[in-house]
Design goal:
By secondary structure, the chain is an all-alpha fold. It is 80% helix and 0% strand. The two termini are 18 Å apart.
Length: 51
């Protein structure tokens, strides 16, 4: 079964990253901060899932 939470996080991250690259946004923008938060959530979810 697919992990929909993980897929949703990764999809949102890809979309934000594309926007940041297109606009050339700096590291301190809300979009880049959200990407960092998503990375942490993905890492925590994978660690929890693997046990």
């Amino acid at each position: 079964m697919a992990d929909l939470y993980l897929k949703n996080l990764e999809s949102e991250r890809r979309q934000l990253w594309a926007t940041c690259r297109l606009k050339g946004l700096a590291k301190d923008t809300p979009e880049r901060q959200r990407i960092a938060a998503i990375d942490e959530a993905i890492a925590a979810h994978k660690a929890k899932k693997s046990g």
